[in-house]
Design brief:
Elements (H helix, E strand, L loop, with lengths): L2 H25 L12 H7 L4 H4 L14 H5 L10 H12 L19 H7 L4 H5 L18 H11 L5 H4 L2
């Protein structure tokens, strides 16, 4: 085989690895361990809650909020079941201590993101970014979509939204 052919094959192999590696890296978001075993399926399917019952500002605010003990105590002032997960929650509620949820979704300080703009104005369903919560029996521990500039721009392109830098970068 000629040297130029071998060099060409090496270049192609490197490009394939770079593209494949980027795709794999996108799927390999870091996972966090949450303090409570929260079951979204139970709360949505069996109990009939909606996203905004717990994530109070998902449709009206810049941030959706992660439920705090005050939100949880609306239903869990006392035990509803004999679940160990609920018993752990009640410890936080009864002590009035914040639940140390770990953030999974966030953007850098210089990036402006509004839930209201995406949910209420653009009509994007929660599942598009967060996955089908009705199927999740474990707490959210990993992102479903890439929160990168490229990921956001790709989504904006797909939705026909502007990619003007000044809309998101402040």
């Amino acid at each position: 085989m000629k040297l130029s052919t071998r060099v060409g094959l090496v270049v192609i192999a490197v490009l394939v690895l770079a593209v494949t590696g980027a795709a794999v890296a996108r799927l390999a978001w870091p996972s966090v361990e949450q303090p409570l075993a929260f079951n979204h399926r139970l709360h949505i399917v069996e109990l009939g809650n909606t996203c905004t019952d717990c994530h109070l500002y998902a449709e009206s605010g810049v941030r959706a909020t992660i439920p705090n003990v005050e939100v949880c105590s609306f239903c869990h002032e006392e035990a509803q079941t004999d679940s160990p997960a609920e018993a752990a929650l009640l410890e936080f509620v009864q002590a009035g201590e914040p639940i140390p949820w770990k953030k999974v979704y966030w953007v850098p300080e210089h990036v402006y993101f509004s839930h209201r703009r995406h949910t209420t104005i653009a009509g994007i369903e929660c599942a598009e970014c967060h996955g089908v919560m009705e199927e999740k029996e474990q707490p959210v521990s990993r992102r479903e979509v890439p929160l990168t500039m490229e990921g956001c721009m790709d989504c904006h392109d797909e939705k026909g939204a502007s990619n003007d830098c000044l809309l998101c970068h402040r």
